[in-house]
Amino acid sequence: MSGVGRFLRLAEEGRVSVVFHFDGGIMIAKQGDTVITAILMSGQSLRPSDSGPEHRAGFCLMGACQDCWIWQESGPRLRACTTEIIDGMRLTSKAPVGWPDLERSR
Amino acid sequence: MSRVLIVGAGPAGVRAAETLVQAGLRPVVVDEGLRAGGQIYRRTFMRSERTSRTLYGAEADKAEVVHAVFDRLVADDHVRFHSQTSVIALQDGVAYLLGPEGAITFAYDRLILATGAMDRVMPLPGWQGAGVYTLGAAQIALKSQGVALGRRMVLAGSGPLLTLVAVQLIKAGGRVEAVLDTAPLSAQVRGGLGMALARPWVTLRGAMMRAGLGRRYHAGVQLDRIETDATGPVALHWRNARGEARSSPCDAVALGWHLRAETHLADLAGISFEWNAVYAQWLPKSDEMGRAAEAVYLAGDGARLLGADAAESAGRVAATACLRDMGRPASDPAPDLRRLRRLARFAASLQRAFPWPAEMARALPDDTVLCRCEGISAGALRATVEWSGPEANRAKSLSRVGMGRCQGRYCQLAVAEVIAGQAAMPVSEVGRLRSQPPARPAPVSAFLGR
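Predict the joint structure of the above. Result:
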C-alpha cells in the first residue's frame, strides 16, 4: 500500500519497515517516520474537517497548528506531526466508540 | 534561588543554556521536539542516512555546532532536558508542563522564552483543503522525513524561504511546478540593496538560488484561489505582474510570507506587546538584552524575527541579562549586541523587499474560509464586525475566528486586516488577539485531581 499516498518519499528509502493500523486497514511505513508521514505515504488525509466538507491532512508539521491530532483506538489522541510511528500502532481518523464528544451526548 | 527555565531548544535556547552553564547554573530546558535543534536546525528522529550538508546546506556547520553544544550539556548533566514536552500554561511563576513523563508543575525563579516562530500565512480561497501546507511544513517534511508533500507542488508567498524551499525540493528530486512570489520586482530591488549592504554574501547566495529557479519563478503575482477536488488541490489560479490569468496544476500547495513570532507563552507570562510596522505584526516588548518583565527574558525569533544567527546571539545576551540580574558575573555582551544590530538592518531590508500583502486580506471574497480551524468565512467576520465593532477580541468572541485548534496562530493577522478593512481603519488600531491557556491541547485529567 506504499506509493499511492499524498506524500512522496525522496530520501532515506533504506529505513526498516513498520506495520500499523489506520481506520482498520493495515499500512506500512518506515521506522523514523512521524505518524503523519506514515499515514500520508499511503493515504490522502488524516481526518474529516471539524467544520466543513473537506478533509484535513495537517498544515504546519511543526506542532503549532494542532490540525493533525487524531485518535488511537485505545482512546487518547496524539499529534501526528510530532509523534513517531511505532510498529503495531492502531490509529483512527474519528473518535473511537464511547469517546464522550458533544455530538454523541446531545 | 537559581531555578531558571528555558523554553525552546533551538539556536537561542541552546546558547542561553550554554551561557548559564558556563556561569555555574543548571537550567531546565523544555522543548517539544525529540531532539534539540529547533526548526531551522531540526533533526530527524533517527540518525539520518543523509549528510548534514544535504540536510542543512550552507548552514550545516552552524547546525552541527548547535547540536553538539547542547548534546554535550545534556551528556555532562549540566542541564535538565525535558524533550517532547509542551508548556501548557504559565501562572505566578509556575510552568505547567506536559510530556512523556506526564504532567509536571515546575516553579521557576527566572524564565527565558526562546519559542521561535512559525510561518506567516495569508488565507486564500481553498486553503482549508487537505494538501495545502505552510512553506515551513514543506521544508520540515523534506529535512526531517525525506518526503515531498506531493508529486507536483506549487509554492506561493514571499520571502527568502520561498526560494530556499523550492531549491531544496528540486535538488532532492521533487517536482516544483511554480514558485509564485507576491512581492513586486521593484520592491525586491529596493529592499535588496539594503540587504546587500548588511550581508553581501547571504544576499548574493539568495540571488543565485533564485536565478537557478529559472522560469518556475514569478514575481509580483496575485494569488486568486486554490482549486480543489474531493482529495485536495488540483491547481492554483493566479495572475502575473501584467494581470494576465494563469493557473498552475498541482496536488500540493505550500504557502508562507516570512514568519510570525510564536508569542503565546510571552502573552501568558504577562509581557506587553506593540504593533511593529516593519514586521507587520504584534511583537512582545523587551529591552536590547531581552528583558521583558521581572525575571522574564526573550530571545530569538519569538521576540525579534532576525533569523538563526541572531537567535544564537540573542540567546547568549538574554542569559547574560539573567545572570547580571542575579548578581552573577557574566561576559561582555557588546559583540553580540553589535551583531544583532547589523542583522536587524538586514532583516528590515528583507521585510521591505518581500512585503506582507495586507491588501490581499482586505480583498478576500466573502466566501473565503478565513479561520480554517473553525471554518469561519471572511464574509461572516465582516458581518460580525458590523455589530461587534472593530475590536479584534470582541469580533473573535462573537464570530469564533481564532478560537479553534490553532488558537488564531495562523489566521489572526489576516483576521485583523479584514476587521480593519471593514471599518476602514489602520490594522494597528483593531487590537491584538489575546492568548489564553492552554497553549496546547491537553486532557483535563492531566492537571486536575492532583
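The domain at 18-96 of chain A is CATH 3.10.20.440 (Ubiquitin-like (UB roll)).
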